[in-house]
Design a protein that fits this description.
This protein is an all-beta fold. The protein contains no helices and eight strands. The radius of gyration is 14 Å and the shape is elongated.
Length: 97
């Protein structure tokens, strides 16, 4: 996987998503999930209204902050019923020389 974004290990990462309805208006889905897959394959699922790290900023706009605590390629997937899935990728690197 080729990543355009890199961060230094142990950096707080923010990922965000915007949901729109079929009329292109900002809209809140009935549920919002964010899957974060670490380089070692461990997957953490964050659920809006259950996990305090997954935050609704305004109608249709959500973000998640998490710690990139492993070196390697990370994958983030946002999902909501009846909405397009959004994926993001980044790499965490060891910042020492």
């Amino acid at each position: 996987m080729s990543c355009l974004v890199t961060v230094t290990i142990d950096t707080q990462v923010r990922t965000a998503v915007t949901f729109r309805d079929t009329d292109d208006a900002l809209a809140d889905p009935p549920s919002v999930l964010c899957y974060v897959k670490a380089p070692d394959g461990t997957e953490t699922i964050y659920t809006y209204l259950i996990d305090v790290d997954l935050v609704r900023d305004s109608v249709g706009r959500y973000h998640l902050n998490f710690l990139a605590d492993q070196v390697g390629d990370w994958k983030v997937r946002w999902q909501a019923p009846n909405y397009v899935t959004a994926d993001a990728f980044f790499a965490a690197i060891d910042g020492t020389y």
